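User: Hi! I'm working on a homework problem where we have to compare a predicted structure to a textbook description. Could you give me the structure for the chain below?
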Amino acid sequence: MRIVLGVGGGIAAYKVASLLRLFTEAGHNVTVIPTEASTRFVGTATWEALSGNPVSNSVFDDVHQVNHVRLGHEADLIVIAPATADLLAKAATGQAGDLLTNTLLMARGPVLFAPAMHTEMWQHAATRANVETLRSRGAAVLEPASGRLTGADSGPGRLPEPEAIFNAAMALVQGQSDFQLPLAGRTVTISAGGTREPLDPVRFLGNRSSGKQGVALAVAARNAGATVRLLAAHMDVAPPAGVEVVPVETALQLREAALAAAADSDVVIMSAAVADFRPAAVSDTKIKKRDDRDDPVITLVRNPDILHELVELRNSAAPGGRQQLIVGFAAETGDSDGDVLAHARAKLQRKGCDLLVVNHVGTDKVFGQDTNSVVILARSGSEPQEASGTKAEVSAAIIGRISGELNSVSPRA
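Assistant: Happy to help. Predicted structure tokens:
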């Protein structure tokens, strides 16, 4: 596929190098057209090296090929990233002052804009009108992500992650009507990994969680356009790029981080394996084994129920406040009192969360594995949903279900 990648003059231009690599590694032939302003952030040598094609932003280069006409006619797809406020305005008003805006006027295939700018610029009436004009003409304009901007402030205006733009572009070319990123503009907090409760400076009570499922959820939410905050307990895998990482170790630290993060989150997914108990006392020195002493007795105390506390906090919010979706995870084993789903349904009732993702765990199941099989239970009483495959595939199903819940017109019970 022949793709024209237009690069606007914003600091987010550096992220577009990763988007270009995604396109080329997928086998597409990409011609990069940077604006003059964008070359102050990323030079043309970078675009030529990564694309394998010559790069220009002038209508007077290679005039014999009539590039200002040819590129738009031949392109199967045009992607503009970052689409600055200035570039959106020029595209909406049909200006043709350089090679990129000429190419946009000549485009006959799908066009995708990925905006990036300061929050006030994005929310300004002029920018919103330009976006609506472009959409009314058939162009696809993504919603920017929310999060930390160039300075100290945060808000909507971040360029979506390259993987998210790539996915939206491929969906647009395939004619999907729902190419818009389902979690664009949403903030999703995800806990991952296993907590560790210290006994002394060298020992702890822990669990077998690797963090793989939580990291896969963070990737899926990021690729769906969300601003993702990952509360990372002990994990055997590295956190993904493009997400905010908050390191935690104990259940109490996770509780503090989760309550703080929930304040501005549209979705909270508690996939971490949280210790139910912790030692009542932590020794300042290593507990030594000596022949002249009795075996130590470790007294455990109950850790707070973070999931239930998050639900109570959400439910106590003022009427008319933001509706927050809370998703719990249940790592269950069957016993004489019931099977896995029986225990999970009882847990869903106790916790009060909106969705509960249920794992049947064991020594050789789920923890540390690359595949998973889950059942998603809903507090609304809808039919259980099964998902299995790689943890990435399971995560995509979970994020898809969450997106559907958020976009549902029916009120939450």
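For your comparison, note the following. The longest strand covers residues 325-332. The domain at 187-406 is CATH 3.40.50.10300 (Rossmann fold). Good luck with the assignment!
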